[in-house]
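Reading a protein record of the kind used here takes little practice once its layout is understood. The fold follows as a row of integers, each naming the local backbone shape at the matching residue. With these conventions in mind, the following record can be read line by line:

_____
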Amino acid sequence: VIYNNLLQSLFQSLIGSLTIVFSAIFIMFIILFRYFYMALIAMIPNLLSAASVLGIIGWSGIPLDIMTVTVAAISIGMAVDNTIHYIYRYKKEMKSTNSIEMALQNAHTTTGRAIFYTAATIATGFSILSLSNFFPTQLFGIFTALAMLIAFISSLSLLPNLLVKFKVFQ
């Protein structure tokens, strides 16, 4: 009964925390980028990253516990970092080159490369936890590594496509 109440409280806390976190990030994006629509575009990779990891956890039938709930927060943090770095570099390149193709190429070869190496390093580091003897720690390592990869992919594939499709900074 106590464990069931703990899990119920954890689930409610997760929903409340994610709502507050995404609201705060959205407001921060509005202040940072000074455009409402830019903030909406920047939110999409972040929402996708957290939703994908939580969806895979749920689809796998793995119950939410203290370790698996933490993965959502980590994936949000990583995706937000990637998003801010990429958008700022793309904006800078658009100002200097005035060409979408050159801006994307330069953003990918500079910031994109850094995002790749960061995601690969963090994913590798967290995947080491899969060798643990404690099953919740194994799950934490596997899903955090997966979250890093999803954040990386969404930042370097979905985000550039959204920036081009919605003609941001043109």
